[in-house]
Specification:
By secondary structure, the chain is an alpha/beta fold. It has helices spanning 24-35, 57-68, 91-103, 116-120, 133-139, 160-180, 197-210, and strands at residues 15-19, 47-49, 76-82, 107-112, 194-195. It starts with 14 loop residues before the first strand and ends with a helix.
Amino acid sequence: MRNKNRPARLLARQLHIFCEGEKTEPNYLRHYLKLRGTNGTAQDTVVVIEDRKKNTPVQLVEEVIQKKKSFPSSHIFWVVCDRESKVKYLDALHHDARQKANAENINVALSNVCFEVWLLLHFQETASAYTSCDDLLKRSELKKHFSRYDKNDDFSSITERHIAKARKRAETMNKVTKKSANPEWTHPYQWNPYTNVYELLDEIDKILQENPR
């Protein structure tokens, strides 16, 4: 808890992150911030993992649009969400979410089919398409890399070395996916597998470098 007698830091820029998932994504990002020397919760930090009330891409983007009005224009906003199965969430809804985000300068870190594909890349290369998160957990070897894996995992086994490998593997995977996809598919929610979570991590690194503690 911040000392009330200490003045709050005046920040030119601040990064706000809104996660679709309630546990996995925030827990992972807090672990990443811990590796970077901060925790994403203090009032005066430059990176804040925000509480959210909505949990679908469209609703989450709309919530961010409203909250964004309360902050200076220099602040940066990211939404972290999953593609999910097409049965659960139609392409048209992802298109709507992305259109609204682009119009309001809100960044989107999307994983197709779910955030767990990003986690899997910490330990191995993959180019497999999955129909759902349950399908990924059933058919991939992700659980083998954790002493336990559920939505509460603390990710303490993930190191800087794992993250560096995941970044490179994600870039390679995305290129392979896009190259082999239908040429008419031009959006990340149409590419399976895909993740650009590493772009959010790059943004975190950049703003922390701008504001050393």
